Amino acid sequence: MADDVAAARTPREALVNVIHSPNRLAILATLNRVQHVSFADLREHLQLTTAELSRQIAILEKEEMVEVAKLRVKRVAVTHIRISDTGRERFVAYLTALHSIVGTES
């Protein structure tokens, strides 16, 4: 039944607000291209402050779209982030809806 409701929605209604934020969209687009990335590398790549990236990652983590792991590399704590399987599926669905709206093929 939920699939019937989702199928009946217009592309605009299918856009997920949690992804639609420019910073979160950029984060997911980056993570979708790599297996995982360190927090520092992601921050530098996106040119975000530590506080802003932390806030956006927390939102995506709460939505179960990313996974965060704290690792030790040569005695230094490093935070790694990856897109979850659910996050990848939701991101692809978002892009499909977006392509539908702007009139390009996905």
Could you characterize what this model shows?
By secondary structure, this protein is an alpha+beta fold. It is 61% helix and 17% strand. The chain is built from seven helices and three strands. The protein has helices spanning 2-8, 11-14, 17-20, 22-32, 39-46, 50-62, 85-102, and strands at 37-38, 66-73, 76-83. It has a three-stranded antiparallel β-sheet with strand order 1-3-2. A hairpin with a 2-residue loop joins strand 2 (66-73) and strand 3 (76-83).
How is the biggest beta sheet arranged?
3 strands, antiparallel
Classification by helices and strands: alpha+beta
Mean pLDDT: 87
Low-confidence segments = 1-5
Portion in strands:
15-25%
N to C succession of SSEs: HHHHEHHEEH
Number of strands: 3
Helix content: 55-70%
Strand order of the largest sheet: 1-3-2
* N- and C-termini, Cα separation: 26 Å
Shape: elongated
Individual helix count: 7
Evaluate the radius of gyration. Answer: 15 Å
Describe what is shown at a glance.
61% of the residues lie in helices and 17% in strands. The chain is α+β, with helices and mostly antiparallel strands. It has a three-stranded antiparallel beta sheet with strand order 1-3-2.
Provide key terms for this protein.
three-stranded antiparallel sheet, disordered N terminus, alpha+beta, 106 residues
Could you give the topology of this structure?
Layout: H1 2-8, H2 11-14, H3 17-20, H4 22-32, E1 37-38, H5 39-46, H6 50-62, E2 66-73, E3 76-83, H7 85-102
Antiparallel strand pairs: 1-3, 2-3
